[in-house]
Every structure is written in C-alpha cells, then in structure tokens.
Specification:
Layout (H helix, E strand, L loop, with lengths): L7 E10 L10 H7 L11 E4 L5 E5 L6 H21 L3 E3 L18 H10 L1 H4 L5 E7 L3 H11 L3 H8 L4 E2 L2 E2 L5 H6 L14 H13 L13 E3 L5 E8 L4 H23 L9 H14 L4 E4 L4 E4 H11 L1 H7 L2 H14 L2 H9 L3 H12 L11
Antiparallel strand pairs: 1-3, 1-4, 1-5, 2-3, 5-9, 6-7, 8-9, 10-11
Helix pairs in contact: 1-2, 2-9, 5-9, 6-10, 9-12, 9-13
C-alpha cells in the first residue's frame, strides 16, 4: 500500500432546539458568542453557523489517529452543548428535527445564505438537515478525482451505517435518512459522475453553475468530491452521527476507503464506471432502509442484505485498516452498531415517550457522559 494512512478531519452539524418543546431554536449566533466561556477547544477545532440559525457546526483540525480525532470531536460537542444550555437551548446530533419547526419565523438569511434561499426557493426554505462530512488527505487534485471514482460503490453503505434522520419536524417518515431525501431534491445531488481528471471535474462544476443549478463553484451536492478548499477528498454522505463513536466509525471507514483507493491507483487499477441510475437507486435504498433491509450494490447492480454489504466493505478495506492500526477499533464499533442499531433505529425506540423525553435522550447521546460539558484544559 502507500507510505501510511492519510490524515483526516470531520465536520459535524448539529440542531439547536428548545429543550422542553423540541421547537427548533434560532440561537446559533448567541451560542457562538459564548462558547469560549465553556472551555478551550483543541488546536485546529473551529465552530461556526450553518445555513439556518437553528444549526451550528464544529470542525476538527487535521488528525492522524483515531484517538486524536475522538478527543477533538468530544471536546467540540461538550463546549457547544455547554454554550447551548446557557442559552436555554439543547444541542442535538440528529440528521433532521425530531420536534416541530421554530415557534416563530427565523430571521431572513443574509449574504451567501440569502443567495441560496433565492436560488432554491421552497426546496430549501425548511431545510434543517445536518450531516457529518469527512475530509481525507489527498494532495494531488487529479488523484483526488480518481479516488472519488473509486468511492461510488461504497457511499450508499456508508449512508446506511450513518442513518440518523427518521423524522421530519416530528413526523416519522418511514425512512432511516430523511436528510438524504431532502438533499436529493437539489440539482446534481447523489454519486458524482465518473470524471477523468481535475480539469474535467472543474468543467463539470462550472457547467452546473452556468446552468443555474449551483450558486457558485464551492457548492456541489455530490456525496463525495475533491474539496475546493483543502487538499482532501470530502465525503458528505453521512447523517450527523448520534454519538462520537458513530462519528469515529464513519471517519475511519472513510479514510480506509481513500487509503485503499490510493493503493489501487498506485497499481494502475482505475475504478469501474457505475450507472448513474443504479447509484441513485442505491442511495435511495440506503436512505429508505438503513441497515434493516436490502441495499443495492451499485457495482453488481443487484440487491443484497444490508449487513452483507457492510461485511464486503470491511473486507475491501481490511488491509488499509490494518496499516492504520484501526482494524480492532472499527470491528468493535461495527459490532456495537449491530447490537444497538443505527441512530435512526434508536431514535424511533424513544420517540413514543414524547418530544420532551426524546429531546432529553438525544441531548444525552450527543454529549459523551462522564466529564460534564465544561472543559478545564
């Protein structure tokens, strides 16, 4: 394989809600203003607002080990949860709102967010979907495009593993990732087309901008792409992780897939182009069923039990996980997920207790137990 595992970083989006009613609460600016009073963040960790003021995002720095990543994810969640609580808000790690929308209309968007609202209208008006984005270091832009080609088959499986969005403003949708259904309404969403190099990638993006489908070249809805800001491949397929463990699992599997792709490319093995229609079916099946039913293998163009595709994914990246020293941890995290269920399964199990109880449960799952929400160093 290559000289060593690539670096990685994670961006996590969260919802802010009233802890008693579950109404989405547009308090992101207040939480950001006070987060420094709730403990220092590790070097490189950043927090900022998202599309809606009912959302907030934490981004880790560049990490090399699972332990480093776990520490940064945990610290960010604790700090933001503490700041949110001080503003009478709850920080929730869920892909879509478990409770109703804002009790009062949120403020109008400004700047680039206003441009997005103007471009997409009602499609984005109630969009409060939260994702977990994983960046994996790939220094060469042409290689990054080739790596993205290799990821297409496995992106639906990553989505199914991450499924944590069964509700739509309090309504059980019957899906495991309603966030992905919402995202699929945007033009150019889903698995990226097969592209031969970075120049072709840029032309594809520029064409979508020229056609009015994208606001600017920094905005794409593909589930994996070369980052426009960092020397990375960015995987954008996962729902926001219910727990730090789920986020770490998603990150380690994403890194292993990129690591394996780099190894394959070094041996001259290019990816097999996939049918765009079958890829769309595979993404839909993962959103619909999570890990509870049949998924679509976009390479074989057939349906398979979800856990057989998880096993195929683990076998595909086994060498990469061994080289990074992550195999044992990933196996343990997958076993726990198999026993406990994805975030969507767990959310449904508690939803019958009422919105307030579900919000309390989600709040507790979002922030790791044992150390409170205030960091001292």
């Amino acid at each position: 394989m290559s000289d060593g595992p690539p670096t990685l970083g994670v961006e996590e989006e969260f919802l802010l809600v009233n802890p008693r009613t579950g109404h989405a609460s547009p308090c992101a600016e207040q939480v950001l203003a006070r987060h420094r009073h709730h403990g220092p963040l590790p070097g490189g960790v950043r927090v900022h607002r998202e599309l809606r003021l009912t959302q907030i995002e934490a981004a880790t720095g560049v990490c090399t080990t699972a332990q480093e990543l776990r520490h940064q994810l945990t610290a960010a969640r604790r700090v933001l949860a503490g700041a949110a609580a001080a503003e009478d808000c709850a920080l929730l790690a869920t892909g879509t709102p478990i409770g109703p929308g804002p009790a009062t209309p949120p403020p109008a968007a400004t700047g680039r967010y206003a441009d997005i609202d103007a471009a997409y209208g009602a499609v984005v008006a109630d969009y409060e979907a939260c994702g977990c984005h994983v960046h994996v270091g790939v220094a060469d832009p042409d290689t990054a495009v080739a790596v993205v080609n290799h990821l297409g088959r496995w992106l639906p499986t990553l989505l199914a593993l991450s499924a944590n969005a069964p509700f739509d403003h309090g309504r059980d949708t019957g899906y495991h990732s309603w966030r992905m259904v919402l995202q699929s309404r945007f033009p150019g969403s889903g698995v990226a087309p097969y592209l031969r190099n970075h120049a072709e990638h840029r032309r594809a993006i520029d064409t979508l901008v020229d056609c009015g489908a994208l606001v600017d070249p920094d905005q794409t809805f593909w589930l994996a792409r070369p980052s426009g800001k960092f020397p990375t491949v960015e995987l954008r397929v996962a729902d926001t992780a219910l727990t730090v463990d789920h986020a770490v699992l998603q990150a380690l599997l994403s890194r292993a897939l990129v690591h394996q792709a780099l190894a394959d490319l070094s041996r001259g093995r290019e990816a097999t182009p996939l049918s765009s229609q079958v890829c769309a079916a595979a993404v839909w099946a993962a959103a619909r069923h999570g890990l509870t039913g049949l998924l679509v293998d976009a390479l074989e163009e057939t349906r398979r039990p979800a856990w057989s595709l998880v096993e195929a994914l683990l076998e595909h990246v086994r060498t990469a996980l061994e080289e990074s020293g992550d195999l044992t941890e990933v196996q343990a995290l997958v076993a726990a997920l198999h026993a406990d269920g994805t975030g969507s399964v767990q959310q449904r199990a508690v939803a019958g207790r009422g919105t307030a109880a579900a919000v309390r449960w989600l709040t507790a799952r979002t922030v790791p137990a044992g150390h409170g929400t205030r960091l001292t160093g």
